[in-house]
Specification:
Chain A is about 10% helix and about 35% strand. By secondary structure, chain A is mostly beta strands. By secondary structure, chain C is α+β, with helices and mostly antiparallel strands. Chain C has a domain of about 80 residues: Alpha-Beta Plaits. The chains are: A mainly beta (about 100), B alpha+beta (about 425), C alpha+beta (about 230). Chains in contact: A-B, A-C.
Chain lengths: ~100, ~425, ~230
Amino acid sequence: MKIINCPLNGPRNAQEFVHGGEFVAMPDPHRSSDAEWSSFVFLENNTAGVVREWWCHVPTAYWFIAERDTIKDEFIRTYDPSEVFRERVEFAKPPAQGS
Amino acid sequence: MAFGLIKYGLSPRYPGKRFLSRQPELKSSYDVVIIGGGGHGLACAYYLAKNHGVKNVAVLEKGYIGGGNTGRNTAIIRSNYLTPEGVAFYDESVRLFQGLSEDLDFNILYSERGHFTLAHTDAAMRTSRWRAEVNKHLGVNSEVVDREDLKRLVPSLNLSEDVRYPIMGALYHPPGAIARHDAVAWGYAGRAAEMGIEIHQGTEVTGLEIEDGRITGVVTNRGRVACGKAMQAVAGLSGVMANMAGFKLPIKTVPLQACVSMPLKPFLDPIIVSGSLHVYISQSSRGELVMGGSTDPYPRYQTRSTLDFIEGLMAHILELFPFLADVPILRQWAGMTDMTPDFSPVMGETPVKNYYIDSGWGTWGFKATPVCGKRMAETIATGRVPALLQPFRLSRFEEYSLVGEKGAASVGH
Amino acid sequence: MALNPSTLPARSFLYRELQKFGAVFGEVNGYASAMTVGADAAAEAAQARSLGLCDLSALKRIGFKGWATAEWLTSQGVTLEDAPNRVYPQGDGARVARLSKGEFVVLGDLEGRSTLPDRLGGAWSMASANGCFRVPREDASAWLTLTGAEGGAMFAKVCGVDLRPHKFPNNGIAQTSLARMNAIIMRADRGNTLAYDLVFDLASAVYLWGALLDAMAEFGGKPVGLDAIKALG
């Protein structure tokens, strides 16, 4: 069994975790074009090598960030999202409908 | 008998024949370069030569032909999909498969078995009916069967109600078949080579040359090759190739594992699939049980087998066939699959002119080998994407026009 | 005087399972709770010291989460430290389990002396506790305690985390997979007896109860009543 080091709970069996996808910045949903938004939703870097991703420890519903080598299948580092997000991400209010 | 064979073997009147002629030197230029010498790439080369007379073609394979996912799948062929687009597409593939041994003059051991997708819930019964209706509407033979039918058609199946997920019925698809997957690659390769297609094994593409948004050549470990057109058919590494071409795909590379048991006397004629239990199982012509399940839980570029997979898979297989408990597993392996958000392929044109793509073959690629080859050859030769492939264009994601085959294409959901 | 559990409006999801073992029920916090399982109190106490499983679902508990939860709890007189995955005993017998930076479960005591869970429930309101939200642990989570010296060895069969007493300290918390179910496991020794509190999804209580008893059978483990747990001290 593969062991993943959860920043909150320590080393745990990989079965306790869910892969949450690539760590990419979310575009402003109200101001991005269809192409930008579909790229965010559907397209993948799918890097062969070191990637940065979201993971979730399911028993605690705790989301964290992992740096992982997709060729060697090795976790390099896992850390709490507060290392990246110092404050809440806010988007400007949506433009008024019809404008 | 044995002496006879030795006599023929030693006789100059029956010389040994190489399946592929000796590998030629790489030329400096081809009309078409096909990246990836799996079933799809080789089939495309074959139909380019046969249907369109395009013969100045090189197939570049970094390993050996059929050494990737072509030789790692569980060789199931069927067309009982959910969407009309999917059903029409896979139906053409099944029809091509049915005549393929004759077409290639090479026995691919095509064996029509019948295919059962078991339903263990009301929701699965509803989806079975839905698929059966879509299939029938498009002339594909599928019907919903109940427990009594199953008792008769699959006598070895455990229909007990004293299990975690009792079987309520199934979607029955009589044309469901299996074939020898390596033979499909070899058959296409042999006939393509006879028509003058060059197949270069041990030839890895390391870069693409793109000028003014148009492909002009590929860089390989054996030197540079100019080309008029190129196609990538490198399932598992589609994203890596697309990255070289400068665009992104809606594809995650996720390993899919499978295994075979030791050979047993024939007892299981049809192919049995259960979406709820995440398993599929068939018995090969050698008697081995060929078994697979859902993809690994997270993406990676690796083909390592895991104990988790085999434990989980067997727990479910034994619910369907409890008497297999003492049967040893002979081999276990993995392939790297192109998983797409809608469980449909990504085929046709790309943002790079004259650079075509055949990708997104998650866990459903082998059964599409002939149709992909034929229709991608048509796309490359004519420069027009046939209507059959239009629904699977890369731009469908930007248009939010997905072709949802989850549940019909795969057991991992 | 034995109580028929079905005469009370509130009873544990496990009461039918406990009836199969001959449990005698009494009322705790308005719930029908198994006070004894089996006729011999001394034998039951011995069982709890070797390997016993007791349903504590009748006891008070309440949950909170949110970015300002620690501040709000502190303002209500709760004593806390920063480290997550630790249980912080309060002076009156209640315990506060810190599951993460911002999530907590407050557990009442066996005798019902502590007023903390009720007091917090009464003090909390959406308006007054900004950044702190209620988690309905009393309605959503079952609570078992597994006691006795064999506990550490038994858990090795059903849990990937090493819960043996020399590896897993008293008041430590493991939030993990237990018999393939998500559970909060808290070491909560009672007197000199090794014990673990298990808090998990109420809807799967019957499953986990059966899975644990199955795993415990090898070590002679059996269900015990609330009285036997109280007797541990």
